[in-house]
Amino acid sequence: MKKYNFGAGPCILPREVIEKTASAILDFNGIGLSVAEISHRSKDFQPVMDEARALVKEVLNVPEGYSVLFLGGGASLEFCMIPFNFLVKKAGYLNTGVWAKKAMKEAKLFGEVVEVASSADENFTYIPKNFEVPTDLDYLHVTTNNTIYGTELHKDLDVPVRMIGDMSSDIFSRPVDVAKYDCIYGGAQKNLSMAGVTFIIIKDDVLGRVQREIPTMLDYRTHIKKGSMFNTPPVVPIYTAMENLRWIKANGGVQAMQKLAKERAEIVYGEIDRNKLFHGTVKCEEDRSYMNICFVLNDEYADLQDEFFKFATDRGMVGIKGHRDVGGFRASCYNAMTIEGCKALVETMKEFEAKH
Ligand SMILES: *Cc1c(COP(=O)(O)O)cnc(C)c1O
Fold first, then answer.
1. 99 lines ligand 1 (CB under 6 A)
2. CA distance 81 to 189
3. Which residues are catalytic?
4. Mean pLDDT of the chain
5. What is the CATH number of domain 15-251?
6. How is residue 306 annotated by DSSP?
7. pLDDT in tens, 293-304
8. 87 with 103: CB under 8 angstroms?
9. 3-class DSSP state for residue 67?
10. Can you tell me the distance from the alpha carbon of 132 to that of 323, in angstroms, rounded to the nearest whole number?
């Protein structure tokens, strides 16, 4: 049976990218060695690092003056590295859920944190709008896609301060106005690569403003200076990122990815809105994530929860259980999810509706 991977992360990657990684693990570039067992400083691996970093810039149209890093630690370590390196006095955070709160918690260790707005009152099922942003912030931190609740900022905000974006789960799914950000980061395992590497796009000239001592490994300047090779980088996930970036580029870049994302979202939300059994948890249409589509059973059908999960699993739908904070179902539709996969999910929902 064909399986459709709707998992939120680690996530689906293009088959071709997985195959190329598998092949490079067995024999990298025909050198008779695995990409996993050669020196990261060798003449064989260096081009991988160089190309992956260059492709991030090219695919996302990153302006001059930014560096791209591939580090370990996940987006969660960035929650602390960001304020360590950028928070002089006061930072703003847009509270759109669990990840934003975790980022805020770390920032409080380093300075004053202003919660500019929050959607906690409705369990983060919408994106706050029309909020005031103090002009004296060192930065405003935003989570552009809220993986757990299925809300997304589809456009980069217009605010009077510099932004920092956690783009873990929507990077490379749309064009980004990088110039508005001092830093963009994320765990790669949602839409870029396998788990084990974090991508960071950082504006060079904003570093060095904080007075505090920064441990060597947590200082972005260390990694910029050493070309993202201060210590041994996660070589295999970086290889996969490079192959995936090649795939994105060959398939029309982020413009094409955005178009596909919209198409997928229309198919799945269309069915959620039509089907008598289900409703979407995010009501405001413009806040609905293209990446993580959350839906629940209507109250009168609430006891069908386990039955639908089994019904869908039996038809090859993998990873659609909703996050425990939201319940219900979540169909994650990252770049590699096909229209065919979305249609298969819709068919499953229709069949289940007919049964009840
Ligand atoms: C998954 C996720 C994180 C955490 O990423 P790790 O790499 O596991 O630390 C942070 N932010 C968002 C938006 C996420 O989806």
1. yes
2. 19
3. 99, 166, 190
4. 97
5. 3.40.640.10
6. H
7. 999 999 999 999
8. no
9. strand
10. 31
Instruction: Grade residue 157 by pLDDT with cuts at 50, 70 and 90.
Output: very high
Whose alpha carbon is nearest atom 4 of ligand 1? 75
Q: Which CATH superfamily is domain 253-354 in?
A: Aspartate Aminotransferase, domain 1 (3.90.1150.10)
HSE on the CB side for 158, CA within 13 Å?
1
The domains of the chain are located at 15-251, 253-354
User: Going by CA atoms, what residue is nearest to atom 8 of ligand 1?
Assistant: 74
- Fold identical between 15-251 and 253-354? no
175-201 mean pLDDT: 98
Longest dimension (CA), the chain: 65
The rounded distance, in Å, linking the Cα atoms of 166 and 256 is 22
* Amino acid identity for residue 188 in this structure: A
SS3 177: coil
Cβ of 96 below 6 Å from ligand 1: no
How many helices (DSSP H) and strands (DSSP E) are in the chain? 9, 14
Q: What is the pTM of this model?
A: 0.98
Q: Which atom of ligand 1 sits closest to the CA of residue 169?
A: 15
Q: What is the rounded average pLDDT of the residues 71-83?
A: 98
- In this prediction, residue 55 carries a pLDDT of 98
Residue pair 47/185 in contact (Cβ under 8 Å)? The answer is no
Task: Give dist(CA 22, CA 52) in Å, integer.
Answer: 18
Amino acid at residue number 192: L
